[in-house]
Fold this protein.
Amino acid sequence: MCVGVPAKVIEKQEFTAVVDVMGSTMTVGIIFVPEVEVDDYVIVHAGQAMSTIDEENAILSIEEWRKLVDARTPE
């Protein structure tokens, strides 16, 4: 099973993009989604943007990821 994380594109180059993943930025490949634009959301797996996702579903997914992170963070 593969797990993809939603991320917002904040900068785009020819073959890569800088994305925001829950407050952290990283550079990912965009060869699978060359049509992606700044402010789009993508699913990232293993350093590659695998597909685009609409904003509503991305935000819902990010909220669930945040719950997992918060549950693992010691108080």
Q: What stands out?
A: The beta strands are 5-12, 16-21, 24-29, 41-45, 48-53. Helices lie at 55-72.
